[in-house]
Amino acid sequence: MQKEIAEIVEKIEIRRIVMSLYEKLNDDMKNAMRAKDKETLSTIRLLKGAIDLARINNGTRNEECSDDLVIEIASKQVKTHKESIEEFRKADRNDLADNLEREINIISEYLPPQLSKEELELAIDEIFDIVKPDGKKDMGKIMKEANERLKGKADFKLVSEIVGSKLSA
Questions:
Q1: What is the DSSP string of 61-127?
Q2: How far apart, in whole angstroms, are the C-alpha atoms of residue 153 and residue 115?
Q3: Where exactly does CATH 1.10.10.410 map onto the chain?
Q4: Residues 40-79: pLDDT tens digits?
Q5: Which CATH architecture has domain 117-168?
Q6: What is the DSSP letter of 59?
Q7: Alpha-carbon radius of gyration of the chain
Q8: Spatial distance between the Cα atoms of 129 and 76, rounded to a whole number of angstroms
Q9: CATH 1.10.1510.10 region(s) of the chain?
Q10: What is the pLDDT of residue 15?
Q11: Which phi and psi angles does 21 have, rounded to 5°?
Q12: CA torsion, points 98, 100, 102, 105, in degrees to nearest 10?
């Protein structure tokens, strides 16, 4: 009996390790329901709804949800939340901005770790070595390569600033 229980626990642990982000999202939603954590639950529902909408629009509703899609949608949600925070701060609505910051913290759990500015500059230097830009006219080529390599790992507003400054130098 003990051996059977140990095997079941091991299978559950292995499943958690290889769980997709979408499965983790569903699992976290159930846990938030059990814990009666309304803020986390509403944020996860918001993210899950956006992912499901994207799956419907892409015609992939019945297929398994990829981690790339979850990261893409979560990144978009974080970006729009940050833009909204700026507007709320300008309008002196710090209460709403604080709520959005808490939502960003919850959504960020489903994103890969963000690169530091130094790591980002090194990655951009590598991209410059590959693309070999002639000037500002090659900004699009650089940003396309950066998008492929850094998707979900960096704030592209910062990437654009760094690329622009390197091209100007």
A1: TTSPPPHHHHHHHHHHHHHHHHHHHHHHHHTT-HHHHHHHHHHHHHHGGGSPPPPPHHHHHHHHHHH
A2: 6
A3: 117-168
A4: 999 999 999 999 998 888 877 777 788 888 888 998 999 8
A5: Orthogonal Bundle (1.10)
A6: T
A7: 20
A8: 28
A9: 2-110
A10: 47
A11: -60, -35
A12: -140
User: What is the pTM (predicted TM-score) of this model?
Assistant: 0.72
Tokens of 44: 């996860």
Q: Specify the long-range contacts of residues 142-149, CB closer than 8 Å, at least 24 apart.
A: 142/167, 149/123
Write down the residue that tokens 């299978």 correspond to: 11
CATH code of the domain occupying 2-110: 1.10.1510.10
Task: Name the token pair of 82.
Answer: 């940050």
d(CA 60, CA 66): 10
Angstrom distance (rounded) from CA 49 to CA 58:
14
Dihedral of CA 29/32/33/37: which sign?
negative
